[in-house]
Amino acid sequence: MVGYNVQTAVDATHHLIVTHEVTNVGHDRHQLHHMAQQAKEAIGAETLAVAANRGYFKGEEILACKQSKITTYLPKPQTSGSTKKGLFSKRNFIYHADDNEYTCPSGERPIWRFETVEKGLKLHNYWSSHCPNCSIKSQCTTSAYRRVTRWEHEAVVETAEARLNREPERMRTRRETVEHPFGTLKAWMSSTHFQTKTLKHVSTEMRLHVLAYNFKRVLAILGVTPLLNAIQA
């Protein structure tokens, strides 16, 4: 059975659905900039601030948003293989932009060695010559050297993480915003959800739900008379 993924951008002030899209892709990693840009164009804004869940986190998407004057707020997934093994993660290494070096947990300086290209991304590689003699090496790596890789635009990702750390309330606002339309739509659609099949028909069905939802929201916000006046204007 084909599963459908509904992407929505919701206005935090009035809980109106600004834009939406139905896909048959099972994840959201390539949708952040696409949906944010659609929302930005829909409301005719020069700049936009968006909050999303960690499923949308992808460095290239955050970079694309920055280039489109879209400020992002979303948490980074904790998927470090080192952490799962009980070893230091990359978060334990502090980057020094002026020197283009890291400081590792032992206080040594992993320095730049070379750059590589993986999956189209330019990555810089760092490690310290002190690794083989490090007293806490067993907490860091099982290899001869602990190598740290850094994407050429990683500063953009780090800035986004720091921004969310300064404004953690953004995620609470996101939850409060998206739960209203999704809860309402799910109640309307009942347990069977979509009644149609194929992406084309499901997309049409979703558009009708969104239209009905937004109409009822505007009616609740403005009232009957102002809404009729606005329609007739």
Rounded to the nearest angstrom, the radius of gyration is: 23 Å
What is the overall shape?
elongated
Order of helices and strands: EEHEHEHEEEEEHHHH
Helix percentage? 25-40%
Report mean pLDDT, rounded to a whole number: 93
What structural class do you assign from the helix and strand content? alpha+beta
Sheet-strand content, in percent, reads: 15-25%
Uncertain stretches: none
Number of domains: 2
Main sheet summary = 3 strands, antiparallel
Count of DSSP H/I helices = 7
What's the arrangement of strands in the largest beta sheet?
Answer: 7-8-9
Keywords, please?
233 residues; alpha+beta; 2 domains; three-stranded antiparallel β-sheet; two-stranded antiparallel sheet; 39% helix; elongated
Walk me through the structure:
It is a single chain. The chain contains seven helices and nine strands; from the N terminus they run ββαβαβαβββββαααα. With 233 residues, it is an alpha+beta fold. The protein folds into two domains: 5-77 and 160-232, no CATH class; 81-154, no CATH class. The strands form four sheets. A three-stranded antiparallel beta sheet has the order 7-8-9, with no helix packed on it. A hairpin with a 2-residue loop joins β7 (111-118) and β8 (121-127). α1 (32-43) packs parallel to α2. The longest helix has 24 residues, at 199-222.
Short account of what is shown:
The protein is of the alpha+beta class and 233 residues long. The protein has helices spanning 32-43, 59-67, 81-84, 154-166, 169-189, 199-222, 224-232, and strands spanning 5-10, 17-23, 48-51, 70-73, 94-96, 101-103, 111-118, 121-127, 148-151. Helices cover 39% and strands 20% of the residues.
